[in-house]
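Need tokens for this chain, all 387 residues.
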Amino acid sequence: MIRIGPREISVPFRPIPIEVPKGMKLNEFFNSPENLADLIQNNGLLSNKEDLVLYRKAIGHSNEFDCSVIYNTSQSVLNPLGRPVRRTQLPDNVKNMWNRMNQIIIDFMLQHYPDPNKHLVLAGEASLDATWPIASSGVPSIRMLHNHFIVFDKIQLKNAKLADVNNPNLTDGGQHSLFATYMQTVYVEFLSSLDLEILNPISSEFASLELTGYPQGLPSWRVSGGVESLKNINFWKEYDLVLKGFLDFYRTFFAQVSSINSGVPKNAYFPKQIEKILLFNNCFLSAAKKVRDKCISDARYATSIRWQPAFKQLLYRNDRGALIVTISQNSIGNAITELLGVVVNRTPDAKAYENSEPQLIEKLLKLRKRLVDAYLGHGIQTKHWNQ
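Here are the structure tokens for all 387 residues:
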């Protein structure tokens, strides 16, 4: 009998020979231009004039297939808090290139891993906004927009041990989520009000993976037309609408927490839906009051609040082979894989990593060639591969 529940796996990596300057924390150094230069020199696969870089994840989630595209503004914007961290902040020419790269990479993964019973295929991004408490030193991760492209072997997941369901990083259900705990119904209602044609709302049962039972209780949409729809610019516009809807919900809620009866936030994407659905919903407003009251009386709780938008948005293939879009707040966890119930422990083990490195690099170089042929950039030469 198959055990249903989140899985915990260990993924070996080759330790990175980087010396962090004395007195700096890891997350502070990871945001420096020096570290980003190292990322490109040692793991960069492709770059283009729009500053989009495809790179191998040196400390990744999976050694089956794992890479990222980052909007590398580390040289042009030295202030980490001033860098673009989500798609809605991209210039039009960069966004067009970003969407095309995403479409080709996802298509590549689905072609090389065609069986949904054998592999879990996912792509998505986590918000890197100024979400950490002001009093905390450093920032949580590399503060630039980047997308993850990951494939997991389902046999490995099936044989993995069950993860602790109380792990606070498993933020996709109702266990630790502020929204799902108090406002799941209004949250789903608000996001379901978006004007979408390619993305069709589906039930949690259809969206969840049989092996892990995740994601849980989140608004989810099926991509009508499957992978072919990713070649349609309207799909990417709808993908952005989902993000914009989430941002409106988050901003409206914490505006209420900050200031009673604050009304519709300035520059809201969907002001009519905010007024009609959110600001006239007793559960939404009473939840904001609970958070506000606790902030006033509990100093530790107040300083832990992330006041700015923080999200995980994911496109993945479910057990039936359908492409699913979902989005969640990123209020506790940091790893995007946990949205699907996969907890990854990275373990330093150079020998174990090198056993899987050749086949991983082979696929990444094939992907790079496809992107170069599509006029999306030029190859980068490193000590691990020739240009």
